[in-house]
Amino acid sequence: MSYNNLDTLLAFLREDLEPGQDRIYYAKNISNRTDIDGKEVGYWFSRAVGLYPQWDSVEFDGLEVERYRPETKATRWRVTRLEEEVRLVADGGVRWLDLTGFQQQLVKAVIEFENEERESPYGVQVKRSLSEWYGHEVTNAQIYPNIDDLVEMDVLDREPLDRRTNAVQSTPLARQMLAGEAEHMAHVAGLELTEAVADGGEER
Q1: What percent of the chain has pLDDT over 90?
Q2: CATH architecture of 96-189
Q3: For residue 202, what pLDDT is reported?
Q4: CA–CA distance, 73 with 59 (Å, rounded to integer)
Q5: DSSP class per residue in 121-156
Q6: How confident is the model at residue 194 (pLDDT cuts 50, 70, 90)?
Q7: Domain boundaries in the chain?
Q8: Degrees (nearest 5) of the Cα angle 153, 61, 196?
């Protein structure tokens, strides 16, 4: 079982459902559309509804999951995409934890490209980076709706390169959130962070 596959599953569900919409799924049908093994799909759904008491449940951020008609032999899952997906903090900002795992990795890919190449990537380059990280090809249906959501949250921005191509840029908010996450992880690991992401990597 892989948390990378969990991210893929969540991205698929968010793209397959409109806000407020619910749908009944068989694990096998999702497997056919995502290349995630059907047993693993069922495993993550079971974790989401707490069917494995020996393990902590997992949160399907922005989604509500329930076993559909559990009295029947067929194992089906009702998934609802919640209306309110962007939870705001008191000052009106978006938190790192408000992003899905896939969106977090997308933001990291954009910032990493900017830091290494000294320019902003376009969509195909982001797709290539994420495909390498996940170990399988990420689809356009996963990339572009999530970029749209992140632009709406002011986490990413777009800059037209020509009539057909836009560069994807990180915003100060994106770098501040990633810097905060880096500081948190360093603290958890008992390490001292010597460079800040938010200020472009200058020593502090």
Answers
A1: 35
A2: Orthogonal Bundle (1.10)
A3: 42
A4: 25
A5: -BHHHHHHHHHHHHTSPPPHHHHHHHHHHHHHTTSE
A6: low
A7: 3-81, 96-189
A8: 55
Question: What angle separates helix 27-34 from helix 38-48, to the nearest 10 degrees?
Answer: 120
Give pLDDT, residue 169.
93
Structure tokens at 55: 């393990």
Q: Which two tokens stand for residue 10?
A: 């969540």
State both tokens at 117: 């190449």
Per-residue tokens: 191: 């390490």
Strand order in the sheet with 63-68: 22-25, 76-81, 63-68
Residue 77 burial by CB count (10 A; 0-12/13-18/19+): exposed, middle or buried?
Answer: buried
- Largest CA-CA distance found in the chain, in angstroms, rounded: 61
User: Measured between alpha carbons, how far is 122 from 33 in angstroms, rounded to an integer?
Assistant: 26
